[in-house]
């Protein structure tokens, strides 16, 4: 495996195991295996991050081959280590702009799923693969003809902010309102919300794809100083330096998320 920058040891161990298991009987033919997500964006956190992948097959897998892939992921889970999560699809699928989620076989939280809609079939994953994907095997991403479409990506990101993230905010506000005075909250939730929105805001402003850490760093540079404390706290939580935070800090984080969503959406719609 030839990669410009060495993979983290935990990732390398899983990848070597995956490649060995893919040679077993009844496995589909994998023409290319690529890493996306935190590994590709230099934000992998040992003990916390998953290994996100895109596997390119020569054709749609049969039921027998899907069963073999299911055994592969069960075996990986039994060994332990980071979840190996991603999607198995064909090269032709990558050449089409993903305007809707599609039912390709995929792994989520270490378990293979078939016959379900895969949310990793989206323009953000396509762009990450096209611009940052790390090749484990097969041709480089540039040779795949990936349909990396900027308009589709912006529409997807705006929809994500106005759909998933506004719903997340409403649920977080309800949970915070139910807490007693003096209670604290999970710092990872603060990081998930603040940095999840910040990375999309950054993408809408720059047309790039960044990690959660990258989104937080961009927010410190681009957003008013009023929000810098909560952004820094979210970055610290993401790095594993903080486990619990005061409720007031999470409330501030939710307010920042609303600000960032409004600003990023308005800016994107003016383009």
TrEMBL record:
Cross-referenced Pfam families: AadA_C, NTP_transf_2
Tell me if Transferase is a UniProt keyword of this record: yes
- Which InterPro entries would you find in this protein's record? AadA_C (IPR025184), NT_sf (IPR043519), Polymerase_NTP_transf_dom (IPR002934)
Q: Which UniProt keywords apply?
A: Transferase
Annotated GO molecular function terms are:
aminoglycoside 3''-adenylyltransferase activity
Q: Which SUPFAM superfamilies match?
A: Nucleotidyltransferase (SSF81301)
Q: What is the name listed in the Swiss-Prot or TrEMBL entry for this protein?
A: Aminoglycoside (3'') (9) adenylyltransferase
Q: What is the organism field in this record? A: Methylobacterium symbioticum
């Amino acid at each position: 495996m030839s990669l410009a920058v060495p993979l983290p040891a935990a990732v390398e161990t899983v990848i070597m195991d995956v490649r060995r298991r893919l040679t077993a009987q009844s496995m589909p033919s994998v023409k290319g295996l690529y890493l996306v997500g935190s590994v590709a964006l230099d934000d992998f956190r040992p003990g916390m991050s998953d290994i996100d992948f895109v596997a390119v097959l020569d054709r749609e897998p049969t039921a027998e081959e899907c069963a073999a892939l299911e055994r592969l992921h069960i075996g990986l889970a039994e060994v332990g280590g980071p979840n190996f999560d991603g999607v198995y699809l064909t090269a032709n699928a990558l050449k089409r702009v993903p305007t809707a989620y599609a039912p390709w076989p995929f792994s989520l939280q270490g378990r293979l799923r078939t016959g379900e809609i895969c949310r990793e079939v989206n323009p953000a994953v396509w762009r990450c693969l096209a611009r940052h994907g790390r090749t484990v095997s097969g041709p480089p991403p540039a040779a795949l003809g990936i349909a990396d479409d900027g308009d589709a990506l912006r529409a997807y990101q705006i929809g994500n902010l106005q759909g998933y993230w506004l719903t997340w905010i409403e649920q977080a506000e309800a949970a915070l309102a139910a807490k007693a005075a003096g209670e604290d909250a999970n710092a990872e939730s603060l990081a998930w919300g603040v940095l999840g929105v910040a990375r999309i805001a950054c993408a809408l402003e720059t047309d790039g794809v960044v990690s959660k850490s990258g989104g937080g760093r961009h927010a410190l540079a681009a957003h008013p100083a009023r929000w810098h404390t909560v952004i820094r706290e979210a970055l610290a939580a993401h790095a594993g330096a903080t486990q619990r935070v005061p409720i007031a800090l999470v409330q501030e984080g939710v307010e920042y998320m609303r600000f960032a969503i409004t600003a990023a959406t308005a800016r994107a719609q003016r383009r």
